[in-house]
Amino acid sequence: MFDSFPVGVSERMDRPAYHEDFGRVYTSGIGFLNKLERGQHFKERGFASWEAFAAGNWTRALSLAEERRDDYAQELQKAARLGISHRRLRVVEFPVTPYVQWELFVLRVRVDEGDDIKVLDARNIRDIEKDRPVPEVVILGDVVMYEVVYDDGNAAGANRFAERELIRETSSGFDALYERGEGFHEFFEREILPLDPPRVSGTWADASDSR
């Protein structure tokens, strides 16, 4: 379970090595991909929609997110050809941060194209997060698991775990959390759509006061 993760031996990978390893394992017949997202503030430099969001151009940010629709559809079609099911669980704190507000608009496009994404209110996992937040983790079947690491909000690589028992235990923890999650559209329409565009300052967004 996540209250004891990570406990295995890991290999630290920088971002290029992580991406290369991920791509190799992903196409090796893994069966499923589970992704847990916990952080509330990130930078996604090079992603045009995030760049527009960080610059304060909310309308442009949402337009650019829509332009990724075909890319996401192709990604999911590739997964289907490989026999890989995708599940993503997005933990959200309240008040919703500007970054998460923006990201959920991006994820809505993915959901529209068939991605399986749920949302989990962080207040509902206080029993699990007594000592530390649940990790940012990507699980590729029973083959490998990555704890994604960040440097000043930027993705910097991952800790790679290959111990099968640890992967199985973490997958079981993910399944339990996923069951607690709420359907994406229900959460989005209730909690995100009513919000005003977030205020931003430089490349970091200020706390939203629009709820």
Structure characterization notes:
39% of the residues lie in helices and 24% in strands. It has 7 helices and 10 strands. With 211 residues, the protein is an alpha+beta fold. The strands form 2 sheets. It has an 8-stranded mixed beta sheet with strand order 1-7-6-5-2-3-4-8, with helices on both faces. Strands 9-10 form a two-stranded antiparallel sheet. Helix 2 runs antiparallel to helix 3 (58-66) and helix 3 (58-66) runs parallel beside helix 5 (98-112). It has helices spanning 15-26, 48-54, 58-66, 69-82, 98-112, 164-180, 184-192; strands at 10-14, 32-37, 85-92, 117-121, 137-140, 144-151, 154-161, 182-183, 200-201, 204-205.
Kindly state the mean pLDDT as a whole number?
Answer: 92
Number of β-strand runs: 10
Helix residue percentage: 25-40%
What is the first-to-last residue Cα distance?
A: 33 Å
**What is the tally of helical segments?**
7
> Looking across the biggest beta sheet, what order are the strands in?
1-7-6-5-2-3-4-8
Largest sheet: number of strands, sense, barrel closure = 8 strands, mixed
Q: What's the overall geometry?
A: globular
As residue ranges, the low-confidence spans are: 203-211
**Topology order in helix (H) and strand (E) letters:** EHEHHHEHEEEEHEHEE
Rg, rounded, reads: 17 Å
Question: In what range is the share of β-strand residues?
Answer: 15-25%
Q: Helix/strand/pairing class, anyone?
A: alpha+beta
